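Below is how a single chain appears once it has passed through the pipeline. First comes the sequence as given, then the structure the pipeline wrote out for it. We keep one example in the README because the format questions we get most often are answered faster by looking than by reading.
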Amino acid sequence: MARMLGGSDSEERRHNSRSSARPKIETGNEIADYLVENFDSLINFAIPVVWCLLFVLIMDREGFFNFWYMPFLGLFAAVLCNTVPIGGGVVYVPALSMLGVDIHLGVSFSVAVMTIGNGGLGFLRWLHKDATLIRWESFRYTVLPSSIGTFIAMVFFPPLDVATVRTLFAYFCLLLACLVLAAVYRGGKIEQLISNDITDSSATGCCGSSTNEPTYRDAPDEEESGLLDTEKTYPARGNSGDNIVNSTEPSMQENIAEIVQLADSIPITFVTPPQPVLYSREDSHRVSVSDLHWYLIAFVSFLAGAFLVPNIGIGPALTTFIALQLVGYNAKAAIVTGIITGGWVSIVPFLLHWLWLNDVPFQLWIMVLPGVFYGAKFAPLVHDHVGLPKVLSLFALFLLGTAYLFFH
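Resulting structure:
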C-alpha cells in the first residue's frame, strides 16, 4: 500500500511540475485574455467557418476559375514576408501589376489582406505565443499617428498617378532589398541590423516560450566535502594474536563526532520547482523612453502613414521596427510590434477603400486568405528546411527584379 501511495504521489508531483512549467499567459486586458484562452477555437474553427461563409456569399464560378492562383500567391507572400517586418503588400502590388491588375486596385487589395493577415491572424498568434513581445505602450505613438496620416492623405489629397506610384514603389523595393541583403550578410539575422546584441530566443520567446527554469547548483566534489579524505590515515589494527590494543585508534565517540561534523559540512540545496510564467505588459522587454523620442516616433509614423500606406499599400511595419530598435527595444519585440502595427494601420485605408471608394477586389481577397493562413503556419518549417539566408536571398532577388521592372 505504501508503495502504491508513493507511486501516485510521484505521478502527481510530475504532473504538477509539468503544469507549473507551462507558461500561463495573462495580459491584464480582459479581451486579450479571452482571445488567448480561446485561441485554438478561433484559429481552428471560427475563422475557417467565417471564411467559408464569405466564400459562398462573394465568390462565383467565373471568379473562382479566374483567380485560382491567388492561394499560391498568398502562400508565397507569407513565406517571404515572415522573414522581415514588412507587410505582404511588397509582394501583392507588383505581382498583381504583372498580372494586369491596376496598381491602385493592388494597393486596396494589399491593405485589405494586411488587415486580416497581420492585424488579425498575426496579432492572435503572437498574443498566444508570447504576449510580452507585443509592446502595447508604443501603439499610441505608432498606430494612432499613422492612421491619422493615412486618413488625411486619402480624404483630402488626390491619389498619385500610376507612374509616380510605380517609381515610389521601386525606390522602396531598393531600400528594402538593401536591408534584406544586409541581413543575408549577417547570416540571416534581421534582428541584428540595428543592434549587434544577439538575443536568446529562449529568453525572448520569439522562437520559444520564456520560462523560469530552476537553478541547480553543482554537487560538491567528494574530496572537497570530505567524503574522500585521502590525507587521513589510521594505524593498522594489531594481529589477532596480539595482546596489545592500539591506543591511537579513534574511539566510538570520536567516530560519531566526525560523522556529525561531515554531515554538517555537506551543503544542502533546495531546488525550487518552476513557477507559472505570468505574461503581462510589465516585463523585462519594457524600455524607458523619453517623451521627446516618443514624439519623434509619432512624427515618423504620421509621415509613413501619409505617404506609404495610401500610395503603395505598405504599412509602417518597417519604420516601427527601426524606430523601436533605435530607442532600445529588444529586436524581436520590435519585429513583432512592427508587424502588428502595420496590420492595424491598414484598417483605416481598408475601410475607406471599401465604404468610400468602393474599389476593394473582394474576390481576389477571399481567394488569397487560405494561402495567407497556411503560409504563416508553414513559413517557419520552410525557413528551417531551406535555410533563412536562402529565403532572404530569394526575397532580395524578387525586390531587385520588382524595382527594375517598375523603373522601366
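The longest strand covers residues 24-25.

See the next section for the split statistics.
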